């Protein structure tokens, strides 16, 4: 086993595996939310390998792997994937292949939470918005096809228990509201074969029983766990349910977010807040509009392709990164466009991942990397 540490004392009953870490990160930022071009998840390592320690970083390069080894960590959790495009060889003549080889030699696993962390409710852009003081945030570009409707047919005395199980599994959220459902009384009909064990009615005959149709919504990426909860909580031998694809959009899930400042700022004051909040030595921005800034759109990382959506939703300012020269011409006179830097606009995800793992597991150390340096430097006259 390449990553098996058979003689390591962490191979005890109840020890935490790479799969456990992948599961916990996926609960916060479901892996199904990653973009089709992305490569998030466990990239190096066997899922049953037991964790000795975790190092969290923004990027992952050789220095980060070396730090992990020095600290006794056998798993690095990063935001940007180490392997993003296809690797055709492992010769060690480029930074990615050298880092992969170093990790393999030292039995260090690698897990990345990239665009799934960008799109999840409370993810990268929400963290950026919170850092800037935004309230009442929602996704700037909600993801399509994420909302399903679940209808289940339940005996009246089991309704509350079934609903509680569905909600605990992640169903019933509409915007900021939770535990949402609708119920209607009705009559169910079924024939129970002689070999069955019906909860209500009799074997070998057509039965008519009172039932309640309960309807709720759930994200597509939670459907498996919601159906598992339904079957577990439902008293019927064969629970009846329907699942419908909806065209509704989940306003909490998607790329970027938009929200409101408590008080409007002039553009100079807003730029000062961005620079101070992100600790960045520079900002690039479009021609000032002369308007006050209160409604603010943000997208951590590369978000120039959403400038139009930010303007369409009435943003006074849009904070993102990787903005090209001609992009700055799009919002002239309508919106202040701010490029705060790719790393600077996303770096808070490192602390979020560290806290997420640290709060769930207490049997090993979780560190933020001290060797995860920015590849970008700034010259000041």
From TrEMBL:
GO terms for molecular function: metal ion binding. Keywords: Metal-binding. A divalent metal cation binds at residues 79-80, 118, 342, 346. One of its GO terms (cellular component) is cytoplasm. The keyword Ubl conjugation does not apply. InterPro entries: DUF34/NIF3 (IPR002678), DUF34/NIF3_bac (IPR017221), DUF34/NIF3_sf (IPR036069), N-reg_PII/ATP_PRibTrfase_C (IPR015867). SUPFAM superfamilies: NIF3 (NGG1p interacting factor 3)-like. Pfam families: DUF34_NIF3. Signal peptide: none annotated. Homohexamer. Belongs to the GTP cyclohydrolase I type 2/NIF3 family. This is GTP cyclohydrolase 1 type 2 homolog.
């Amino acid at each position: 086993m390449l990553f098996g540490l058979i003689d390591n004392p962490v191979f005890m009953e109840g020890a935490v595996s790479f799969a456990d870490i992948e599961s916990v990160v996926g609960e916060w930022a479901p892996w199904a939310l990653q973009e089709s071009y992305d490569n998030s998840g466990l990239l190096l390592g066997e899922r049953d390998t037991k964790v000795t320690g975790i190092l969290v970083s923004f990027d992952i390069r050789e220095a980060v792997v070396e730090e992990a080894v020095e600290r006794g960590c056998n798993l690095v959790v990063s935001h940007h994937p180490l392997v993003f495009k296809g690797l055709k060889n492992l010769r060690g003549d480029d930074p990615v292949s050298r880092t992969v080889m170093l990790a393999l030699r030292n039995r260090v696993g690698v897990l990345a939470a990239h665009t799934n962390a960008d799109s999840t409710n409370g993810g990268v852009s929400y963290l950026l918005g919170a850092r800037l003081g935004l309230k009442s945030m929602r996704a700037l570009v909600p993801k399509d096809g994420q909302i399903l409707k679940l209808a289940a047919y339940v005996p009246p005395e089991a309704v509350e228990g079934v609903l509680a199980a569905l909600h605990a599994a992640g169903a019933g959220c509409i915007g900021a509201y939770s535990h949402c459902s609708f119920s209607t009384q009705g009559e169910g009909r079924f024939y129970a074969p002689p070999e069955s064990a019906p909860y209500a009615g009799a074997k070998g005959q057509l039965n008519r029983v009172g039932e309640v149709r309960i309807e709720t919504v759930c994200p597509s990426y939670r459907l498996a766990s919601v159906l598992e909860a339904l079957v577990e909580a439902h008293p019927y031998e064969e629970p009846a349910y329907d699942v419908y694809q909806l065209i509704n959009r989940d306003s909490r899930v998607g790329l970027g977010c938009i929200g409101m400042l408590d008080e409007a700022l002039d553009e100079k004051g807003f730029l000062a807040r961005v620079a101070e909040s992100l600790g960045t030595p520079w900002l690039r921005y479009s021609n000032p509009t002369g308007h006050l800034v209160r409604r603010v759109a943000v997208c951590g990382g590369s978000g120039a392709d959403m400038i139009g959506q930010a303007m369409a939703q009435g943003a006074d300012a849009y904070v993102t990164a990787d903005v090209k020269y001609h992009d700055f011409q799009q919002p002239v006179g309508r919106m202040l466009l701010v490029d705060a830097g790719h790393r600077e606009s996303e770096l808070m995800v490192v602390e979020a991942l560290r806290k997420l793992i640290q709060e769930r597991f207490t049997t090993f150390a979780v560190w933020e990397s001290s060797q995860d340096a920015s590849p970008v430097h700034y010259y000041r006259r």
